Amino acid sequence: MNTRVESALGPAVKSARAPSRVRLFFDLFKLRIGLVIGFTAVAGIAITPGPALPGWQVLALALAVTLASAAAGAFNQYVERDLDVHMGRTRQRAFVTGRLRAGPRWLAAIVAIGAAGVLLAAIAINLPAAVYTFLGAFTYGVVYTVWLKRRTWWNIVVGGLAGSFAVLAGAAAVTPETLGPLPLAFAVVLFLWTPPHFWSLAIAFREDYEAAKVPMLPVVVGNERAARAVFAGAALLVTASLAPALLGMGWLYLAAALGGGGYLLVKTARLALAPNRRAAMVSFHASLIQLTLLLVAAIAEAVLRA
Asked: Which of 112, 142, 172 delimits the end of a domain?
């Protein structure tokens, strides 16, 4: 925009740019994912038997995990800018378009944000919680993004550990000395949730991954076999999601596991029967609904007990 015109418009231009900057920040740090991961850490606190944490510690851990996850998300975009340019879903990301220029300063800022999250967990909670916070970010940022994504379809399977570490960070905040069977079972649920969730998205955008030469499962085995893997993974996930109910969770959690799990199975079965883009996106969103129900029910039960 011409400088004179911009000056004349003044506040109107600034007002118009503000939402754009917020959206840029939100997308760069993948804050949708980061907030879910922070919420998952709170669920880890909620399901772990032990002394109740003060509210400020719960918020501190949620913030710490969200910061670490945000840093991992931004690092993912920094590293994958050469892939993102080939994909319709990602070619408008800031490091691809040049709105942000990749370089040492941005890399240092991303690392600093991640370190701040880990340090906050160590100071406000304890060292084990900080270690799990670090491992979650490291798994997504380095193990998944750098080591595995370009090499093997196992990338997202191993990457699913990132969510599991958020649960364990919450559990360690309550009982740092040991991890009980309930939080471990819930961590397994988060681990099993990622493949059917992300493979559904990968089916919908298989052409993008093919163009970028990323070996996501649908690219390697085709949509039909990948859709069957999504349904099998969902069945395993739903079965595992019932285990916490056997280990002490109450009726509210059980209802969420059965309701959300049944809904997910119906949608993934339809995907297996008709592996098209629309069914894949429905399956993708069904997995989000299923996880949200589990997390909300786990936290709600803790609130009701208190």
From this structure: 142
pLDDT (mean) for 101-111: 95
Q: What is the Cα–Cα distance from 170 to 61, expressed in whole angstroms? A: 7
- Per the prediction, the chain carries an average pLDDT of 92
Does a structural domain hold residue 153?
no
Instruction: Note the pLDDT tens digit of each residue in 232-286.
Output: 999 999 999 999 999 999 999 999 999 999 999 999 999 999 999 999 999 999 9
Please determine, for residue 1, whether its predicted confidence score (pLDDT) is greater than 90.
Answer: no
Q: Is residue 148 part of a domain?
A: no
Number of domains present in the structure of the chain: 2
| pLDDT at residue number 17 | 59
The CATH code of the domain that includes 49 is: 1.10.357
Cβ pair 59, 195 in contact under 8 A: no
Asked, for residue 219, whether it belongs to a domain, the answer is: yes
Q: Are residues 103 and 24 in the same domain?
A: yes
> What domain range is 304 assigned to?
180-306
Among 77, 112, 142, the domain boundary falls at 142
User: What pTM did the predictor assign?
Assistant: 0.91
Is residue 16 scored above 70 in pLDDT? Answer: no
